[in-house]
Amino acid sequence: MSRPLAGRNIRALYAESEHEEVALWADPSSGYRGIIAVHSTALGPAVGGTRFWNYASDEEASLDALRLSRGMTYKSALAGLPFGGGKAVIIGDNRTPHREQLFRAHGRFVESFGGCYVTAEDVGTTPADMEYVRMETSYVAGLAGGSGNPSPVTAHGVFRAMQAAAKHRWGNDDLKGVRVAVQGCGSTGYHLAKELHERGAKLTVADVDAARAERAAHEFGATVVAPEEIVEVEADIYAPCALGGVINDRALARLKAEVVVGSANNQLGEERHGDALEELGVTYVPDYLANAGGIINGCRELLGWGVAETLEKVRAIYDTTLLVLALAKTEGVAAHRMADRLAESRLAAAAGAKSDN
Ligand code: NAD
After folding, report:
1. Residue 169 maps to a domain
2. Do residues 170 and 34 share a domain?
3. Would you call 53 helix, strand, or coil by DSSP?
4. Which of 87, 194, 329, 354 is catalytic?
5. Which domain holds residue 35?
6. Rounded to the nearest 10 degrees, how much is the dihedral formed by the CA atoms of 140, 142, 143, 147?
7. Catalytic: 87?
Protein backbone atom coordinates (compact mmCIF):
# COMPACT_ATOMS: atom_id res chain seq x y z
CA MET A 1 0.00 0.00 0.00
CA SER A 2 1.30 3.45 -0.86
CA ARG A 3 2.23 5.77 1.99
CA PRO A 4 2.63 9.53 1.67
CA LEU A 5 6.14 10.93 1.40
CA ALA A 6 5.51 13.49 4.13
CA GLY A 7 6.21 12.09 7.56
CA ARG A 8 8.23 9.11 6.33
CA ASN A 9 11.35 8.59 8.34
CA ILE A 10 13.63 8.46 5.32
CA ARG A 11 16.34 10.09 7.43
CA ALA A 12 16.82 6.86 9.37
CA LEU A 13 16.97 4.89 6.16
CA TYR A 14 19.72 6.95 4.64
CA ALA A 15 21.69 7.39 7.85
CA GLU A 16 22.21 3.63 7.71
CA SER A 17 23.34 3.70 4.11
CA GLU A 18 25.78 6.62 4.62
CA HIS A 19 24.38 8.91 1.94
CA GLU A 20 25.51 12.52 1.75
CA GLU A 21 22.08 13.84 0.86
CA VAL A 22 18.63 12.54 0.08
CA ALA A 23 15.72 14.78 -0.76
CA LEU A 24 12.07 14.32 -1.56
CA TRP A 25 10.19 16.77 -3.66
CA ALA A 26 6.64 17.21 -4.91
CA ASP A 27 5.19 19.58 -7.48
CA PRO A 28 1.40 19.32 -7.17
CA SER A 29 0.70 21.34 -10.33
CA SER A 30 2.35 18.71 -12.53
CA GLY A 31 1.75 15.71 -10.29
CA TYR A 32 5.49 15.27 -9.91
CA ARG A 33 6.87 13.33 -6.94
CA GLY A 34 10.53 12.44 -6.91
CA ILE A 35 13.51 11.49 -4.82
CA ILE A 36 17.15 12.35 -5.45
CA ALA A 37 19.81 10.42 -3.54
CA VAL A 38 23.43 11.54 -3.52
CA HIS A 39 25.52 8.76 -2.05
CA SER A 40 28.99 10.22 -2.50
CA THR A 41 30.75 13.13 -4.14
CA ALA A 42 34.21 12.09 -2.90
CA LEU A 43 35.48 11.49 -6.44
CA GLY A 44 33.39 14.08 -8.25
CA PRO A 45 29.77 15.04 -8.94
CA ALA A 46 27.29 12.26 -8.22
CA VAL A 47 26.22 10.87 -11.59
CA GLY A 48 23.29 8.51 -12.07
CA GLY A 49 20.16 8.27 -14.17
CA THR A 50 16.52 9.02 -13.43
CA ARG A 51 14.32 5.97 -13.03
CA PHE A 52 10.59 6.52 -13.63
CA TRP A 53 8.61 3.70 -12.06
CA ASN A 54 5.26 2.91 -10.52
CA TYR A 55 6.66 1.88 -7.15
CA ALA A 56 4.33 -0.06 -4.85
CA SER A 57 5.18 2.31 -1.99
CA ASP A 58 7.22 5.41 -1.28
CA GLU A 59 9.46 3.31 0.90
CA GLU A 60 10.22 1.03 -2.03
CA ALA A 61 11.05 4.09 -4.17
CA SER A 62 13.37 5.44 -1.46
CA LEU A 63 15.14 2.14 -1.06
CA ASP A 64 15.65 1.90 -4.82
CA ALA A 65 17.15 5.40 -4.93
CA LEU A 66 19.44 4.65 -1.98
CA ARG A 67 20.57 1.28 -3.34
CA LEU A 68 21.08 2.46 -6.92
CA SER A 69 22.97 5.63 -5.96
CA ARG A 70 25.34 3.65 -3.76
CA GLY A 71 25.90 1.24 -6.63
CA MET A 72 26.83 4.16 -8.89
CA THR A 73 29.50 5.31 -6.42
CA TYR A 74 31.14 1.88 -6.50
CA LYS A 75 30.78 1.52 -10.26
CA SER A 76 32.49 4.83 -11.03
CA ALA A 77 35.18 4.30 -8.38
CA LEU A 78 36.12 0.89 -9.71
CA ALA A 79 36.12 2.12 -13.32
CA GLY A 80 38.49 4.94 -12.31
CA LEU A 81 36.07 7.73 -13.26
CA PRO A 82 35.99 11.17 -11.63
CA PHE A 83 32.37 10.76 -10.53
CA GLY A 84 30.49 10.04 -7.37
CA GLY A 85 27.23 8.13 -7.16
CA GLY A 86 23.69 9.46 -7.31
CA LYS A 87 20.29 8.42 -8.57
CA ALA A 88 16.85 9.94 -9.00
CA VAL A 89 13.51 8.22 -9.02
CA ILE A 90 10.20 9.65 -10.19
CA ILE A 91 7.20 7.91 -8.70
CA GLY A 92 4.37 7.26 -11.14
CA ASP A 93 3.26 5.69 -14.40
CA ASN A 94 6.11 6.07 -16.90
CA ARG A 95 3.69 5.79 -19.83
CA THR A 96 2.15 9.17 -19.03
CA PRO A 97 1.78 11.46 -22.06
CA HIS A 98 2.12 14.59 -19.83
CA ARG A 99 5.89 14.69 -19.86
CA GLU A 100 6.94 18.31 -20.30
CA GLN A 101 5.65 19.72 -16.99
CA LEU A 102 6.71 16.60 -15.13
CA PHE A 103 10.30 16.56 -16.42
CA ARG A 104 10.66 20.32 -16.10
CA ALA A 105 9.68 19.95 -12.44
CA HIS A 106 12.30 17.22 -12.21
CA GLY A 107 14.83 19.56 -13.84
CA ARG A 108 14.18 22.21 -11.17
CA PHE A 109 14.71 19.58 -8.49
CA VAL A 110 18.03 18.52 -10.10
CA GLU A 111 19.05 22.20 -10.39
CA SER A 112 18.46 22.67 -6.65
CA PHE A 113 21.46 20.39 -6.02
CA GLY A 114 23.71 23.01 -7.64
CA GLY A 115 25.71 20.51 -9.72
CA CYS A 116 26.57 17.94 -7.08
CA TYR A 117 24.05 15.64 -8.80
CA VAL A 118 24.02 15.10 -12.59
CA THR A 119 21.19 13.11 -14.09
CA ALA A 120 20.63 11.10 -17.29
CA GLU A 121 18.10 8.63 -18.64
CA ASP A 122 17.38 5.27 -17.06
CA VAL A 123 14.49 2.80 -16.95
CA GLY A 124 11.27 4.59 -17.94
CA THR A 125 12.90 7.77 -19.25
CA THR A 126 14.11 8.77 -22.71
CA PRO A 127 16.47 11.30 -24.35
CA ALA A 128 13.38 13.39 -25.19
CA ASP A 129 12.50 13.55 -21.46
CA MET A 130 16.05 14.75 -20.75
CA GLU A 131 15.51 17.62 -23.19
CA TYR A 132 12.72 18.86 -20.88
CA VAL A 133 15.04 18.46 -17.89
CA ARG A 134 17.60 20.51 -19.81
CA MET A 135 15.16 23.44 -20.00
CA GLU A 136 15.60 23.86 -16.23
CA THR A 137 19.15 22.70 -15.55
CA SER A 138 22.45 22.08 -17.29
CA TYR A 139 23.24 19.16 -14.96
CA VAL A 140 21.87 16.54 -17.32
CA ALA A 141 23.38 14.07 -19.83
CA GLY A 142 21.82 11.45 -22.09
CA LEU A 143 20.41 14.05 -24.47
CA ALA A 144 19.60 13.27 -28.09
CA GLY A 145 22.81 13.85 -30.05
CA GLY A 146 24.88 13.39 -26.87
CA SER A 147 26.88 10.26 -26.20
CA GLY A 148 24.33 8.05 -27.96
CA ASN A 149 22.91 4.66 -27.03
CA PRO A 150 25.13 3.21 -24.28
CA SER A 151 23.96 -0.40 -24.71
CA PRO A 152 26.47 -1.62 -27.36
CA VAL A 153 29.28 -0.08 -25.29
CA THR A 154 27.96 -1.70 -22.11
CA ALA A 155 27.74 -5.04 -23.95
CA HIS A 156 31.34 -4.68 -25.13
CA GLY A 157 32.47 -4.10 -21.55
CA VAL A 158 30.61 -7.24 -20.46
CA PHE A 159 32.30 -9.13 -23.30
CA ARG A 160 35.71 -7.91 -22.09
CA ALA A 161 34.87 -8.98 -18.52
CA MET A 162 33.83 -12.37 -19.89
CA GLN A 163 37.14 -12.78 -21.72
CA ALA A 164 39.02 -11.94 -18.51
CA ALA A 165 36.92 -14.40 -16.51
CA ALA A 166 37.68 -17.10 -19.11
CA LYS A 167 41.39 -16.30 -18.86
CA HIS A 168 41.25 -16.50 -15.07
CA ARG A 169 39.22 -19.68 -15.06
CA TRP A 170 40.53 -21.64 -18.03
CA GLY A 171 43.84 -19.92 -18.80
CA ASN A 172 42.64 -18.72 -22.21
CA ASP A 173 40.47 -15.75 -23.15
CA ASP A 174 39.43 -17.11 -26.54
CA LEU A 175 35.67 -17.64 -26.35
CA LYS A 176 35.48 -19.76 -29.52
CA GLY A 177 33.38 -22.83 -28.79
CA VAL A 178 32.57 -21.65 -25.25
CA ARG A 179 28.89 -22.23 -24.38
CA VAL A 180 27.18 -19.07 -23.13
CA ALA A 181 23.61 -18.86 -21.78
CA VAL A 182 22.28 -15.32 -22.23
CA GLN A 183 19.27 -14.31 -20.13
CA GLY A 184 17.51 -11.41 -21.88
CA CYS A 185 18.00 -10.37 -25.49
CA GLY A 186 17.22 -6.68 -25.06
CA SER A 187 19.51 -3.72 -25.66
CA THR A 188 22.59 -5.18 -23.96
CA GLY A 189 21.85 -8.91 -24.30
CA TYR A 190 21.40 -8.61 -28.05
CA HIS A 191 24.71 -6.79 -28.57
CA LEU A 192 26.53 -9.18 -26.25
CA ALA A 193 25.13 -12.18 -28.14
CA LYS A 194 26.22 -10.58 -31.43
CA GLU A 195 29.78 -10.08 -30.24
CA LEU A 196 29.93 -13.60 -28.80
CA HIS A 197 28.61 -15.08 -32.03
CA GLU A 198 31.24 -13.19 -34.02
CA ARG A 199 33.91 -14.75 -31.76
CA GLY A 200 32.57 -18.28 -32.27
CA ALA A 201 30.80 -18.82 -28.93
CA LYS A 202 27.84 -21.24 -28.82
CA LEU A 203 24.75 -19.46 -27.61
CA THR A 204 21.62 -20.41 -25.73
CA VAL A 205 19.21 -17.53 -25.12
CA ALA A 206 15.93 -16.78 -23.37
CA ASP A 207 13.64 -13.78 -23.24
CA VAL A 208 10.10 -13.28 -21.94
CA ASP A 209 9.55 -11.47 -25.23
CA ALA A 210 9.67 -14.47 -27.58
CA ALA A 211 10.34 -12.31 -30.66
CA ARG A 212 13.59 -11.05 -29.12
CA ALA A 213 14.83 -14.58 -28.42
CA GLU A 214 13.83 -15.68 -31.94
CA ARG A 215 15.77 -12.80 -33.43
CA ALA A 216 18.93 -14.00 -31.67
CA ALA A 217 18.22 -17.54 -32.88
CA HIS A 218 17.82 -16.33 -36.44
CA GLU A 219 20.81 -13.96 -36.51
CA PHE A 220 23.28 -15.81 -34.29
CA GLY A 221 22.22 -19.46 -34.52
CA ALA A 222 21.31 -19.42 -30.83
CA THR A 223 19.25 -22.17 -29.22
CA VAL A 224 16.16 -20.75 -27.51
CA VAL A 225 14.93 -22.05 -24.16
CA ALA A 226 12.06 -20.95 -21.90
CA PRO A 227 12.94 -18.02 -19.58
CA GLU A 228 12.69 -20.19 -16.46
CA GLU A 229 15.17 -22.72 -17.91
CA ILE A 230 18.07 -20.46 -18.85
CA VAL A 231 19.81 -20.65 -15.47
CA GLU A 232 20.05 -24.45 -15.59
CA VAL A 233 21.28 -24.77 -19.17
CA GLU A 234 24.45 -26.87 -19.64
CA ALA A 235 26.68 -23.89 -20.35
CA ASP A 236 30.16 -22.71 -19.42
CA ILE A 237 29.05 -19.12 -18.79
CA TYR A 238 25.74 -17.76 -17.53
CA ALA A 239 25.15 -14.16 -18.59
CA PRO A 240 22.26 -12.41 -16.76
CA CYS A 241 21.25 -9.50 -19.01
CA ALA A 242 17.69 -8.83 -17.86
CA LEU A 243 16.72 -8.47 -14.22
CA GLY A 244 18.42 -8.01 -10.87
CA GLY A 245 18.22 -10.56 -8.05
CA VAL A 246 18.67 -13.57 -10.35
CA ILE A 247 21.47 -15.08 -8.24
CA ASN A 248 19.32 -16.39 -5.43
CA ASP A 249 18.88 -19.64 -3.50
CA ARG A 250 16.73 -21.21 -6.18
CA ALA A 251 19.12 -20.28 -9.00
CA LEU A 252 22.19 -21.49 -7.09
CA ALA A 253 20.65 -24.93 -6.72
CA ARG A 254 20.18 -25.16 -10.49
CA LEU A 255 23.18 -23.33 -11.92
CA LYS A 256 25.48 -25.45 -14.12
CA ALA A 257 27.85 -22.78 -15.44
CA GLU A 258 31.35 -22.30 -14.03
CA VAL A 259 31.37 -18.56 -14.73
CA VAL A 260 28.71 -15.86 -14.19
CA VAL A 261 29.06 -12.48 -15.88
CA GLY A 262 26.38 -10.28 -17.42
CA SER A 263 25.02 -6.76 -17.82
CA ALA A 264 22.15 -6.84 -15.31
CA ASN A 265 22.44 -4.55 -12.29
CA ASN A 266 22.21 -5.99 -8.78
CA GLN A 267 22.45 -9.64 -9.82
CA LEU A 268 22.99 -10.93 -6.29
CA GLY A 269 19.73 -11.37 -4.40
CA GLU A 270 21.74 -10.76 -1.23
CA GLU A 271 25.45 -10.38 -0.45
CA ARG A 272 25.55 -13.95 0.85
CA HIS A 273 24.69 -15.24 -2.61
CA GLY A 274 28.05 -13.90 -3.82
CA ASP A 275 29.73 -15.85 -1.04
CA ALA A 276 27.72 -18.93 -2.03
CA LEU A 277 28.99 -18.63 -5.62
CA GLU A 278 32.53 -18.61 -4.26
CA GLU A 279 31.81 -21.67 -2.10
CA LEU A 280 30.40 -23.49 -5.12
CA GLY A 281 33.60 -22.71 -7.03
CA VAL A 282 31.84 -20.46 -9.54
CA THR A 283 33.83 -17.52 -10.97
CA TYR A 284 31.65 -14.44 -10.58
CA VAL A 285 32.41 -11.04 -12.10
CA PRO A 286 30.61 -8.42 -9.98
CA ASP A 287 27.91 -6.76 -12.05
CA TYR A 288 29.00 -3.19 -11.48
CA LEU A 289 32.48 -4.05 -12.70
CA ALA A 290 31.27 -5.81 -15.86
CA ASN A 291 28.58 -3.30 -16.84
CA ALA A 292 30.51 -0.03 -16.33
CA GLY A 293 30.57 0.55 -20.11
CA GLY A 294 27.34 2.56 -19.89
CA ILE A 295 28.72 5.16 -17.49
CA ILE A 296 32.06 5.16 -19.32
CA ASN A 297 30.16 5.94 -22.52
CA GLY A 298 28.59 8.89 -20.71
CA CYS A 299 32.07 10.41 -20.33
CA ARG A 300 31.87 11.41 -23.98
CA GLU A 301 29.13 13.83 -23.07
CA LEU A 302 30.14 14.66 -19.50
CA LEU A 303 33.90 14.99 -19.95
CA GLY A 304 34.22 15.51 -23.71
CA TRP A 305 36.06 12.22 -24.25
CA GLY A 306 36.64 11.02 -27.81
CA VAL A 307 35.55 7.60 -29.07
CA ALA A 308 39.08 6.15 -28.84
CA GLU A 309 39.56 7.23 -25.22
CA THR A 310 36.14 5.88 -24.30
CA LEU A 311 36.77 2.49 -25.90
CA GLU A 312 40.17 2.23 -24.28
CA LYS A 313 38.55 2.67 -20.87
CA VAL A 314 35.91 0.06 -21.71
CA ARG A 315 38.57 -2.39 -22.83
CA ALA A 316 40.33 -1.82 -19.48
CA ILE A 317 37.42 -3.63 -17.81
CA TYR A 318 39.40 -6.73 -18.85
CA ASP A 319 42.40 -5.74 -16.69
CA THR A 320 40.28 -4.69 -13.71
CA THR A 321 38.39 -8.00 -13.88
CA LEU A 322 41.64 -9.99 -13.94
CA LEU A 323 42.92 -7.95 -10.99
CA VAL A 324 39.75 -8.41 -8.91
CA LEU A 325 39.61 -12.15 -9.58
CA ALA A 326 43.32 -12.66 -8.86
CA LEU A 327 43.23 -10.63 -5.63
CA ALA A 328 40.06 -12.40 -4.50
CA LYS A 329 41.78 -15.74 -5.02
CA THR A 330 44.94 -14.68 -3.18
CA GLU A 331 43.01 -13.20 -0.26
CA GLY A 332 40.49 -16.03 -0.15
CA VAL A 333 37.43 -13.78 -0.42
CA ALA A 334 34.52 -13.72 -2.81
CA ALA A 335 34.99 -11.53 -5.90
CA HIS A 336 32.13 -9.15 -5.05
CA ARG A 337 33.80 -8.40 -1.72
CA MET A 338 37.16 -7.80 -3.35
CA ALA A 339 35.58 -5.43 -5.90
CA ASP A 340 33.98 -3.52 -3.02
CA ARG A 341 37.33 -3.30 -1.24
CA LEU A 342 39.07 -1.88 -4.30
CA ALA A 343 36.32 0.69 -4.84
CA GLU A 344 36.39 1.63 -1.15
CA SER A 345 40.17 2.05 -1.17
CA ARG A 346 39.85 4.51 -4.04
CA LEU A 347 37.13 6.40 -2.15
CA ALA A 348 39.22 6.44 1.03
CA ALA A 349 42.26 7.72 -0.89
CA ALA A 350 40.14 10.54 -2.32
CA ALA A 351 38.77 11.41 1.13
CA GLY A 352 42.34 11.38 2.52
CA ALA A 353 43.58 13.65 -0.24
CA LYS A 354 40.74 16.10 0.49
CA SER A 355 41.47 16.21 4.21
CA ASP A 356 45.20 16.78 3.53
CA ASN A 357 44.42 19.93 1.53
P1 NAD B 1 16.30 -4.11 -21.97
O2 NAD B 1 15.01 -3.78 -21.32
O3 NAD B 1 16.62 -3.55 -23.29
O4 NAD B 1 16.45 -5.71 -22.08
C5 NAD B 1 16.09 -6.58 -21.07
C6 NAD B 1 15.50 -7.81 -21.76
O7 NAD B 1 15.26 -8.80 -20.77
C8 NAD B 1 14.18 -7.54 -22.46
O9 NAD B 1 14.25 -8.05 -23.78
C10 NAD B 1 13.16 -8.29 -21.60
O11 NAD B 1 12.07 -8.78 -22.37
C12 NAD B 1 14.01 -9.40 -21.05
N13 NAD B 1 13.52 -10.02 -19.82
C14 NAD B 1 12.84 -9.44 -18.81
N15 NAD B 1 12.57 -10.36 -17.87
C16 NAD B 1 13.13 -11.53 -18.28
C17 NAD B 1 13.22 -12.83 -17.74
N18 NAD B 1 12.66 -13.14 -16.56
N19 NAD B 1 13.85 -13.80 -18.45
C20 NAD B 1 14.40 -13.51 -19.64
N21 NAD B 1 14.34 -12.29 -20.21
C22 NAD B 1 13.72 -11.31 -19.54
O23 NAD B 1 17.41 -3.71 -20.88
P24 NAD B 1 18.98 -3.54 -21.09
O25 NAD B 1 19.26 -2.11 -21.38
O26 NAD B 1 19.51 -4.61 -21.97
O27 NAD B 1 19.46 -3.77 -19.60
C28 NAD B 1 19.52 -5.09 -19.06
C29 NAD B 1 20.14 -5.00 -17.67
O30 NAD B 1 21.43 -4.39 -17.78
C31 NAD B 1 19.36 -4.14 -16.68
O32 NAD B 1 19.52 -4.70 -15.39
C33 NAD B 1 20.07 -2.79 -16.74
O34 NAD B 1 19.90 -2.05 -15.56
C35 NAD B 1 21.50 -3.26 -16.92
N36 NAD B 1 22.38 -2.24 -17.51
C37 NAD B 1 22.15 -1.75 -18.74
C38 NAD B 1 23.01 -0.79 -19.28
C39 NAD B 1 22.79 -0.23 -20.66
O40 NAD B 1 23.69 0.42 -21.18
N41 NAD B 1 21.65 -0.49 -21.29
C42 NAD B 1 24.12 -0.33 -18.55
C43 NAD B 1 24.36 -0.88 -17.28
C44 NAD B 1 23.48 -1.84 -16.77
Report:
1. yes
2. no
3. strand
4. 87
5. 3-69+84-134
6. 120
7. yes
